[in-house]
Design goal:
This protein is α+β, with helices and mostly antiparallel strands and about 260 residues long. It is about 35% helix and about 20% strand. α4 links the parallel β5 and β6.
C-alpha cells in the first residue's frame, strides 16, 4: 500500500489543472528571464586566447566556424585528471545531437577543458561522443571565465566561483581524507586538484570581426542543461537523491 496521497481521477484532474496554472506561470517567467539574458550588455574580448583543436591551433573567433554565436560548456577535466568529471559527463551525454541543431541555427557549440587535447579525445572516444571539444591547456581562458582557480585562491580559502567566493578546503583531516578518497575514485586526483576546476557555460557573439562575451552561468544555473534532471523532475519521486548516485554511462554495470 503506497504511503503517498491517493485520490480519484476527478481529484487528480482538479489538482493537475491547478498545477498547470503554476507551470504556465513558470514558463512565462522563464521566457522573461531569457529576454533579460539577451539584454545583458556585451563585453568585448580583447585577449588572444588560443585553443588546440582537431584542426590545429584556433583563436576564440575561430571557434565560431562561420556562425555569429558561440556556446561553450566548461567541462571539468583538468590536466591531471585521469577521466572527465562524472557530473559533466552526465550533462555531456546530451550534447551530440543538440550540436547539430544548433549549428543549423547560426550557433556553434564547443566543450572546452584544460586537459591536453589527446587526453580529451581519448575520453571522448571512450564515451562515444562526437561533439567538438577543444583544449585550453596553457591558456588563461578557464581562469578568466571563472571555472579554474589558482593555488593561491585555494590556499586563501577564497575560490572565486559563481559570482562569489567559496572556501572549498576540507575543515578537518578526516574530511580531507574522505574528500581525497572521493575525488581519487572519480578523476584520479586529490580533492584540491579536482575542485580547482569548476563547471559552467559561457556565450559569445561575433560581430564585425570582434568577439563579445554575452553570458555565463555556473553551479545550479546549469540544471536546465542536464537532461536527466528534467526527466527526474517529472518522475513520481523526483530527484530522490542521497549523495552522488549517478555514474559515467559506461560504469553502471560495474556496480
Amino acid at each position: 500500500m503506497t504511503s503517498h496521497k491517493t485520490g480519484t481521477r476527478e481529484e487528480w484532474l482538479a489538482a493537475r489543472l491547478e498545477l498547470l496554472d503554476a507551470e504556465k506561470e513558470l514558463t512565462r517567467r522563464s521566457d522573461e528571464l531569457a529576454r533579460r539574458r539577451q539584454e545583458l550588455p556585451w563585453v568585448r574580448v580583447d585577449k588572444d586566447y588560443r585553443f588546440e583543436t582537431e584542426e590545429g591551433t584556433a583563436s576564440l573567433a575561430d571557434l565560431f566556424q562561420g556562425r555569429s554565436q558561440l556556446l561553450i560548456y566548461h567541462f571539468m577535466f583538468g590536466p591531471d585528471y585521469t577521466a572527465g568529471c562524472p557530473s559533466c559527463s552526465a550533462i555531456a551525454d546530451g550534447f551530440n545531437d543538440t550540436v547539430t541543431h544548433l549549428a543549423h541555427h547560426d550557433v556553434m557549440f564547443w566543450a572546452v577543458s584544460r586537459a591536453p587535447l589527446a587526453k580529451l579525445h581519448a575520453y571522448r572516444e571512450r564515451m562515444g561522443w562526437t561533439f567538438p571539444w577543444a583544449s585550453s591547456h596553457g591558456s588563461d581562458f578557464n581562469f578568466d571565465f571563472g571555472v579554474a582557480h589558482t593555488k593561491e585562491e585555494w590556499e586563501a580559502g577564497v575560490v572565486a566561483y559563481n559570482f562569489g567566493e567559496q572556501d572549498l578546503r576540507p575543515a578537518t583531516p578526516e574530511e580531507k581524507t574522505s574528500h581525497d578518497t572521493f575525488s581519487e575514485s572519480m578523476v584520479g586526483t586529490d580533492w584540491e586538484t579536482y575542485r580547482r576546476e569548476g563547471p559552467g557555460m559561457s556565450a559569445f557573439a561575433l560581430e564585425d570581426g570582434t568577439v563579445y562575451h554575452t553570458y555565463s552561468s555556473y553551479s545550479r544555473g546549469l540544471d536546465a542543461l542536464w537532461g536527466m534532471y528534467q526527466w527526474l523532475d517529472r518522475a513520481p519521486l523526483g530527484r530522490n537523491e542521497k549523495g552522488v548516485w549517478w555514474r559515467r554511462h559506461d560504469e553502471y554495470d560495474e556496480e
